[in-house]
From TrEMBL:
Positions bound to Zn(2+): C102, C104, Y127, C131
GO BP terms, alphabetized: glutamyl-tRNA aminoacylation; tRNA modification
Domain of life: Bacteria
Protein name, UniProt field: Glutamyl-Q tRNA(Asp) synthetase
Source organism per UniProt: Deinococcus terrestris
InterPro entries attached to this UniProt entry: aa-tRNA-synth_I_CS, Glu-Q_tRNA(Asp)_Synthase, Glu/Gln-tRNA-synth, Glu/Gln-tRNA-synth_Ib_cat-dom, GluQ/Sye, Rossmann-like_a/b/a_fold
Positions occupied by motif 'HIGH' region: 14-24
Cofactor remark from the record: Binds 1 zinc ion per subunit.
Length: 305
């Protein structure tokens, strides 16, 4: 097993932008199983910085869904209550000359990408660094971008065993740390919070795997330890399509309110992972299955409780 100071601290970090569907619930289950299988603490963190997308009712519904499934937590954090912590981190990077204001519009950025000689790398557009050298337009609100170091950052996933390397300037680009409407960016908040709350193990969906090298780079710039990353597959429907909120995946709340048994929902989630379980199970009963999954992924848990 990779070395990291015990005890384990894990977290589930939902964005309260809607109802928790079965796919989210499976990630929540795995994050909980991991923290508890290693005898660690488990945190719940609401990632609610993008206020325009937040649905106030989603906090309470998510808590009730988790409780219903038996996924408890030791402490709760709400990002919108921690703005000063992100402001401090941004101020540190700015004091070190690592950030710059940017007033480019999406259209200007798209145009610059089109005009730049280099073919686009990867699948996402890479900010071409327009404002690195141009002064911002004083008439427009400015975002704050991170001047990414000229480095290739490699991360190894402790679950899949995969390694991902990204050359920051060409594959990621100078990314936004605070948007021009004052909202702190997810990448900054996630890195600051995981470090501030002592998270040692990040269990989350595979959709965030390609964002990991830039988060590790930011950790290094801020002098934080890098947690272990375990990216777990996203739940797909029978057609192999990802269960998205808009795609009609059943919200946990609906199942709960229709009188469905939590144990049967947990059994469905467990079976979707290929685990053989009875018709109904408790989250605790799944702990040995997660331990076995970790061992199959190369972890040695003999010394863990
Ligand atoms: N809030 C993010 C989401 O719901 C998860 C962030 C993370 O786990 O790092 O997709």
């Amino acid at each position: 097993m990779p070395d990291f100071p015990a005890p384990t601290v894990g977290r589930f970090a939902p964005s309260p932008t809607g109802a928790m569907h079965l796919g989210n619930a499976r990630t929540a289950l795995l994050a909980w199983l991991h923290s508890r299988a290693l005898g660690g603490r488990h945190l719940l963190r609401f990632e609610d910085l993008d206020t325009g997308r937040v649905r106030p009712w989603a906090f309470g519904v998510t808590r009730r869904d988790l409780e219903w499934l038996g996924l408890d937590w030791d402490a709760e954090y709400v990002q919108s209550q921690r703005l000063d912590v992100y402001a401090d981190a941004l101020a540190r990077l700015t004091a070190a000359g690592e950030t710059y204001p940017c007033t480019c519009t999406r259209r200007e950025i798209a145009q610059a990408i089109q005009e730049s000689a280099g073919a686009p790398h990867g699948t996402e557009p890479v900010y071409p660094g327009l404002c690195r050298t141009h002064p911002p337009d004083p008439g427009r609100p400015a975002a704050r971008r991170w001047r990414v170091p000229d480095q290739t950052v490699c991360v190894r996933d402790a679950f899949t065993g995969e390694t991902l390397c990204q050359h920051l300037p060409t594959e990621v680009g100078d990314f936004v740390l605070r948007r021009n409407d004052g909202v702190y960016a997810y990448h900054l908040a996630v890195v600051v919070d995981d470090a501030a709350t002592g998270v040692t193990d990040v269990v989350r969906g595979l959709d965030l795997w390609t964002a990991t090298p830039r988060q590790v780079a930011l950790q290094r710039a801020l002098g934080f330890l890098t947690p272990r990353y375990l990216h777990v597959p996203l739940m797909t429907d029978f057609r192999g399509e990802r269960l998205a909120k808009r795609g009609g995946a059943p919200p946990v709340q609906a199942l709960r309110e229709e009188g469905e048994e939590a144990g049967r929902v947990l059994a469905t989630l467990a079976r979707s992972l290929g685990w053989e379980v009875p018709e109904t199970v408790t989250a605790r009963e799944l702990l040995p299955l997660w331990r076995r999954t970790l061992e199959e992924a190369g972890w040695s848990l003999s010394s863990q409780s």
